[in-house]
Amino acid sequence: MSLKKSWVTSANSADHPFPLNNLPYGVFSTADGDPRCGVAIGDMILDMEAAESTGLIALADYPLFDVPFWNEVMDQGPAVWAALRDRLTALLAQGSAEQAKVEPLLVAAADADLHMPFGVSEYTDFYAGMQHAKNMGAILRGSPDLPANWLHIPIGYNGRASSVVVSGTEIHRPNGQTKAPDADMPSFGPSKRLDIELEMGAIVGTGSELGQPITVDEADAMIFGYVLLNDWSARDIQGWEYQPLGPFQGKAFGTSISPWIVTAAALESFRAPTPPREKELLPYLNGSKDGLYDIELEVLMQPEGAEKASSIAKTNYNRMYYSAAEQLCHHASGGCEMSPGDLLGSGTISGAERSEFGSLMELSWAGREPFTLDTGETRGFIEDGDTLTLRGNARGDGFTIGFGDCTGKILPAKTWG
Amino acid sequence: MSLKKSWVTSANSADHPFPLNNLPYGVFSTADGDPRCGVAIGDMILDMEAAESTGLIALADYPLFDVPFWNEVMDQGPAVWAALRDRLTALLAQGSAEQAKVEPLLVAAADADLHMPFGVSEYTDFYAGMQHAKNMGAILRGSPDLPANWLHIPIGYNGRASSVVVSGTEIHRPNGQTKAPDADMPSFGPSKRLDIELEMGAIVGTGSELGQPITVDEADAMIFGYVLLNDWSARDIQGWEYQPLGPFQGKAFGTSISPWIVTAAALESFRAPTPPREKELLPYLNGSKDGLYDIELEVLMQPEGAEKASSIAKTNYNRMYYSAAEQLCHHASGGCEMSPGDLLGSGTISGAERSEFGSLMELSWAGREPFTLDTGETRGFIEDGDTLTLRGNARGDGFTIGFGDCTGKILPAKTWG
């Protein structure tokens, strides 16, 4: 596939994140309007509420775009998703007969604020990167050996949907219980080991029924799109609380996502296989499609007052061991009802080299080997005032499918008010 | 406190679960009407949508009861909760001047179907019963020693809200991965160790802000009410999956709750203290009120075709080590935003004696010591066709605050369809 040209000329650049090939879905507001659905094209946003009310977009007998979330569209199912993408492509393509009607409905992205693009029904986080799992084992348990179930199960746990926020939302450092290995008693206070996790988030677009398992191929077709996801983590809180029932307050204070839903359709030509299975998967986890995507990922860190951010890690989503479709299939395997708007975190994405590690825990080897920023400052974990940014791009032949930054600044911990 | 008398005479019995002292909140439907909010009084249900539309109940400038859930009322906050309870008490009390207006709005409970009383925003399950934690340690790890953090943290994990269902909903046995200790590979199929967990569910009525911790007393005031809760558990799936990130598919196929929300106000006179702390709690976990309640609990089991259910366990909610208010305070301690409609499972409630254990895992000691039902049949775990029922009552002076049964029948596992 090559660049599809649009009459929105800013979209016709090989490096622009939002060419006609992408068409990601978000929610935006302007000085004169409430949050509403929009589609990014070049430097502009197509106002979908206006496009629907003027009759340019007509997908259902009732309005889908008069609400500040994309869940209504998800509910319509894959045939409508495809029809919407086809219609948007036709409206915005170079030579479109309807350019004159569409042009007044474009808003400059520079004039818009972005909001959560969908309502998160429930949030599940996985642990599907092998290098990350080995690193965490080596750091925490002194051995890179994988847990006994790791090569058989896409390990996941339920996270907290209420604390998923859109890029740009500031995050307060969490308080929590921690205990030093040699202390008699735990203490309570601000986390001293605040971290990120570089992940992709898969958004479930159509649901499943309670009690009903699904296949990997069915799961693949249920996925509406993807976002970048930073699963902020307080390693000291997590370390003391997580036995025996898993992470809880160490993960519940914030999860940031990028503001644009990049559809599975836009990523189709970037499909990539999972790596060779080290042990054969049970048959229910086998699907017919390549389930990962070739998406270049980068983490940047910017201390308070620094002029620019330092790149601290680069990796690729195709490094994962399990795909989102495999994870979703496993999620429903016991009969768990899946809902439109469910968000599945991929797990931390780490490549083989230190420079490819997707968390500060790994980059600084638990703080024992701090890394150096462009400013000359060093970091083991996050300090108050630091801004962390995730960036993601799939590179095609003369075009880019970008995600838009997933960024968040850390503020000091709050106390009781 | 003694029995408050109602002109609905069926409510004036010492043993009836729904006297005027109780006034629990549910959602019901009749042959001629959609699901709507109702309040149980004796053998009748007060139709709240009708009471509001006729002007007998007026709590806000817009309707609260034209929807099939109580979340709108929760959103109003504690002052409105108290005003509603006062108004209902006045309307239904013996000698009420408005009896003639209210009487036509009563529906016979026998003619009504009950539905989920509220929308579950998110579901969190705790592990706050000491006897249960010791039993599970002894069974699974060969030692009743508590985890190192147990006496300091009300341990909890995020569960799955989409699979919370109302009493009476049939549950399919889950499929899942299991591995025998001596097997090389796991296998996939229906769980062979299907279990219950006898719990109370606390319903969060008012929320908290992201980043903002709350005190135990604030948490106590945020709780709208309680239900009985059966956290169905597949022990074999859970046993293979839960390291290192906690329970997932072993818990995600169903959680049943009783159909009536018994308000915290109705339970006020049954407050009971938590047991003496074996280690002092950190200050943030200290509150000024007794946080447990004296509620008698019972588990019944009825095989397919048996004429009646056998009582298999009796215990009391006052056996728990941590209260719901302490759990909620801890839940928000890292800044996790809590929402109206969040459901907190207490953790399995087990007393000191075998007859007081709140799960089949404990009652049959992991299936090694099956127990005998009144029919003469024995059980280690649940068989297809078995119906499990939880029952709960707080006993006052001449009155009972009942919860209504929490029941569920197990159907065979489904396969891919």
TrEMBL record, chains A, B:
Binding site for Mg(2+): 231, 251, 255
Residues the entry annotates as binding Ca(2+): 125, 197, 199, 231
Binding site for substrate: 127, 141, 238, 242, 348
Example GO BP: homogentisate catabolic process
UniProt keyword list: Calcium, Hydrolase, Magnesium, Metal-binding, Phenylalanine catabolism, Tyrosine catabolism
Main enzyme class: hydrolase
Statement: the UniProt record of this protein carries the keyword Transmembrane: no
Cofactor(s) it depends on: Ca(2+); Mg(2+)
Domain Fumarylacetoacetase N-terminal: 21-117
Pathway the protein contributes to: Amino-acid degradation; L-phenylalanine degradation; acetoacetate and fumarate from L-phenylalanine: step 6/6
Fumarylacetoacetase-like C-terminal domain: residues covered: 124-406
Enzyme Commission (EC) number: 3.7.1.2
Residues of the active site: 132 (proton acceptor)
Molecular functions per Gene Ontology: fumarylacetoacetase activity; metal ion binding
Protein name according to UniProt: fumarylacetoacetase
Species in which this protein is naturally found: Parasedimentitalea huanghaiensis
